[in-house]
Amino acid sequence: MSETGHQHALSYVRADMLPQQEPPVSHSGPIKWVRENLLSSPLNVILTVISLYVLYAVLSGLIPWFFNSVWDARSLNECREVFLATGATGGGGACWAVLQERGIQLIYGFYPADLYWRPNLTFILFFVAVAPILYSDRLPSQMLWFTALYPFLMPWLLWGGSFWVPILVIAGLVVGYLAWMVGSRIGGSILGGIAGIVFAILWWLFAVPTLNDSIHRVVGNMRVDQVVAESTARLETLGPELTGLETRRESVRDEIAELEAIKAQAFAPIEEAVEIARETAELAFYEEEGVDPETDQIGPGLRERAEEEGQHAASAAARDPALNTVRATFLNAVDGLTEMRNEVNEISSQINIMQSERSDTEALLLNIEQLPDRLEEIERLQESATTPGAISELESVQDVVSQTYTEMGRIGLTPVESREFGGFMLALIIGLSGIILSLPLGILLALGRQSDLFLINKVSVAFIELIRGVPLIVWLFTAQLLLNYFLPPGSNFDLLLRVIIMVTLFASAYIAEVVRGGLAALAKGQYEAADALGLDYAKSMRLIVLPQALKISIPGIVNTFIGLFKDTTLVVFIGLLDPIGLSNSIRSSTDWNGIYWELFAFIGLLFFACCFSMGRYSLSLEKKLNREHR
Hints:
The protein is mainly alpha-helical and 630 residues long. The protein has helices at residues 3-9, 29-37, 42-67, 76-85, 97-108, 117-134, 144-159, 164-222, 224-288, 300-318, 324-384, 388-409, 423-449, 454-468, 472-482, 495-521, 524-532, 537-567, 579-587, 597-625; strands at 161-162, 412-413. Its main location: membrane.
């Protein structure tokens, strides 16, 4: 063969690439992961086996308990009857029916049912308000205007009142800003800041109530005839509506009584068959063991085995096909009773709302009718009110007149008192308010503790050490009991507001130390760089120091927020009905006495969802702000 032909026959350059090969199974995939993470050493193998056994032991009891559950029942005894009828005589599964009946109460407390849309809207608007802060790189900055307005809109939606109250509160910021400008020109920034804070607080404490009462009087005088006409017309329609609802409620109650009889009649043969099977099985077991249960002494182990035999026999008897007809009748009756009782509860709720509306309307019409006489009485008492009794009578009449004008002049939302707040909604209000307010206050305290000004430094240190050195429950009792002793006589400081203030102060002390740790972690060169750029203290902190310190402090800050949110359950000790307090109230009722796990599992799930969400956002924020790889 010639040299040229040999070169054509042997080619050392491949014309086509080989297809990509799958990596060896031992070097990738789940087998590699299991080998490296679970079976990498004898100790890991032992720990893996133990962990799998523990997981199996937990899930083998938890999964049947969760899925073999009852959702349609009106009491714990009715749940047990359903378990017995379906053959789960060993106690059955979970009785989730308590959530169907009381789940709404665990979330909203005693907030009026016809006003649930207000906390729902407040909760939705909260996410709209915080979205431009949490996701500033994805949303337009114009949304921050709504973020600034939300703290004034939220209390109005929850507590109600006239629409001009939030406007008057916002006006306090304008007053504070004007006072800051004037004070800064006269005595510098420190005097301006103090003047702004003082004038804003004075406006909120004195000007807002006075202006609010005056506006109510003006609007009330303009709407007297309209209010009287509308109230009279409403009273005329309330009577027939109440009569119709009461008639419907009585009709449904009669149907419930009939269905209760059907349920009891269907349950009787099931209960009888189960008891006979249980007793027969236990006697047969004792006979096999050669023991007479009436005369011989039976040990606990033998008795437990006998009860297990009885339970197995009872479960088999309950599932006997001969009882299918009565079992189906019983379960259908339970389902029908649940629907009818829910309907009765809904009708009763509507009746209570209408009865309350009727009594309030009648009282308003009576107060309007007596308003001229009471105004004359106020003038007479003002001239002769010299004794404590006369002064007290004058204040009482003035309160009634003021309340009448408030009802006539209110243009806005129906007021809701703080005592009607409860459940998980209460925990959200306290927790979110404390989180939002404690962060800026904690940053100021951290800066104050590092300040070179003697007074600011010592005040910040004293505040932080005092707040941190006393348990939160003590501060809550202080807010409930002792704070009234330091308030002017006759002042009515809402308990929920006092709790929010105490929780905010408590959390701010911990936030201050977390932020101070972030400030201490910064190199001295960062401060020197700010000085080299010619920045003053405020700009150096805002533009250079605090952004880096807060980034370092994110895990500690979020950890404090999570602890604060969980600590809201402590308000149960001062009489506020948070989810734990409501669960105690539910368990103390005769219908649900003895139920535990279902309520606490539901409450724990709600708190876990919120805390887990905060933790995940913290992790994503840390990754987004991470600059070490650039």
